[in-house]
Amino acid sequence: MSKPHSFLLFFLLFLNLSAFSQKKTLLTKFTTENIIIDGKIEEEIWKTAALASDFVMFEPDNGKPINATKKTEVKIVYDNDAIYIAALLYDDEPTKIKKEITNRDVFGVSDHFSVYINGFNDGQQDFRFFVSAAGVQMDCIATEDSEDFTWDAIWDSQVNITDFGWIVEMKIPYAALRFSKANKQTWGLNFMREIKRDVQKYTWNHIDTKIGAVIPQAGILEGIENIKTPTRLFLIPYTSAYYQQSDIGSDTTLKAGLDIKYGINDSFTLDAILVPDFGQTKFDNAILNLLPFEQKFEENRPFFTEGTDLFNKGGLFYSRRIGGEPSTYPNLTDEEEITNYPSTVNLLNAVKISGRTEKGLGIGFLNAITEKTKATIFNSLTNEKRKEVIEPLTNYNVLVLDQRFNQNSSVSFVNANTTRNGEFRDANTSALVFDLNTKQNTYNLYGDFKFSHVNTLEDYNGYKTALNFEKTSGRYRYLFSGKYISENYDINDLGIVFYTNYHSALANGSYRILNPTKVFNTLKIEQELNLEIQNTTGKIQENWYKTVFKGTSLNNDYFELGIVLNPLESFDFYEPREYGSYVYIPKRIASYFGFELNRNNPLTLDMTVNFTKYDEQKRITSGLYISPKYRFNDKISLAYALEYTKMKNDRGWVDSNNSGIIFTERNREILQNDLTGKYSLNNKMTINLTARYYWSYSKNHDFFTLQNNGYLAPNSTYNLNKDRNFNSWNFDLSYSWWFAPGSEISVLYRNYGLERASTVEKEVSKNLKNIFNSDLTNVLSISLRYFIDYNVIKNKF
Description:
A hairpin with a 7-residue loop joins β6 and β7. The chain is built from five helices and 45 strands. It starts with a helix and ends with a helix. Residues 1-20 have low confidence and may be disordered. It has 797 residues and is mainly β.
């Protein structure tokens, strides 16, 4: 290649890289004017504020300038308390603006405007604030991996539908943000507008979808200088009353407590919860669990979901351990039985501190204490009762140090510790986690090393390590991954892990279209190979080859097709429930197909069918999920979901006795029905309905004895009844009123019941009758939470 051509090629490459690095800048200005958040933008300061405009499409047609009929103009000003945002969102057909009223943090079928703020301008974490055209607020803490909508800030907004489109006005206090203490602030900033009827999103600073990372592609906000932020001290007292009625009688309970949020400085916040009350959290979805592992539940308690992004680093923290089931079971004599075994342990208090220094060091510390818990034991020979400690006074803490650098990379240290009083089990786990990206966010190297130590009658250590290399940009992307987990790796005192003692390798490749074609709006084709080998025996534990097609049509209907092939025989080292034993798993092939109709339609449908065929005589698993939803108007909607699974000639553990480990061949069915409804009186007041009925059975018809080689031999002598029939019912009807920022009155009626039996009943109507004839529990509760800003009190007095 000649020198002129080489120079030209270098120039073009440099130009492309420079174009990527170019960022829009918005200069804000200080105001002393009292800005009223009313959606009218009438204050004088708005007339001279700098303008952010020229939005560009994010999806589906990435890079396309916004149409002049939908032009968007945004301004920002600030004072010592907050930043203020005014947005004019033009629309030549304002009567077609979507504006469904939903609960907070639920997007629904609405147009949206949002602002993304990164107070450290480090390209790694946004505080995102959304407002719908119906005036509903949504907010989250966002990283490249996730958006955490369990985080709720206190901020103000107002919308106004006009004859030229709609207006958004927002006030975001500094207390809702995190930033450095520098006199001259430089923040990462982007705005996004969603036009729902067209299923289009636009951003102020262009986000190139060829690049995997979104946050580093934000623009810049400058001009905030010498702000004197107020004290960030917030008190949230609450009081609640519960009336419960069941077959054992009725009971009335009154509770009161206090949450405290204190801004140590502009970067760090302390959250404390005293005398916690989680009585109105979402119910857990109980199932018939025949697996060798515990059922993993989602966290529903606000303290453990809000602003916990730092504590989730490394995957060592499963918050349901705190206040979960007791860790031990009493030793009983032949004459003794347990008459009371508490299912949970009470949380006494919890505190967390989190924030980030101006040099990018994130620090998080969480500590929680649970009370001593005892079981009651009855001796039938002496007619005496005794109590035994099943969970002592326990302290849990998590420490995280997360150093960010180069706008897109980080190295983290995490430690999780569980200390139980007395001679009970203690545990400690540490992790080093790294996430490294090239300057242009085209390649990613990430991994970890984790070490666990358990202090019990016999101390033991374990470790886990993983290394991943991924191409994260362009149409073609790929991932190579390797992992090793030792036999004694155990994080289950404060984390959760099921599979250990194996090593694995994974390769993944994908192709995607980045702009719409004549057939698809979006399309992604993905292929993956995975192989897991058990360390002790060298046998295959898991293997698959997977192909997935997913995309959206030009009508914005979503579809997904997947084929998963397990071409090699493998072995399950957990199902036998006995150390050193394993059971053969046959080859199999599975497929699924799902679609979801455009959610803009009043009537939508979400449906998935799946099918698995095993290389074993007449062993088949099939399933169906179907969920219609109807939106009557912007206030009322109703959704129903049916999920059905049928397993023919399924095989699993059923018993262990002197003759060996007993397996069964069984037929199973699982049926789950969910009904959800919403009636929004306005954007601050809603009535919600959630109902769930779950039924499952397991009917055994042949028994086997597990051989030393992992295969099953027929057993014609075992005849115990190990059939299972399980019914679970939950019904929640709630009323919620956010009568002031951060302040809520909620009323909840809850009805629930659970029935277990060893006789299988295959008629759904009879199962329903059985559970409604069982001992259902009814709970009526009223809760009041009130948000108090120290500065407001100070100003009044």
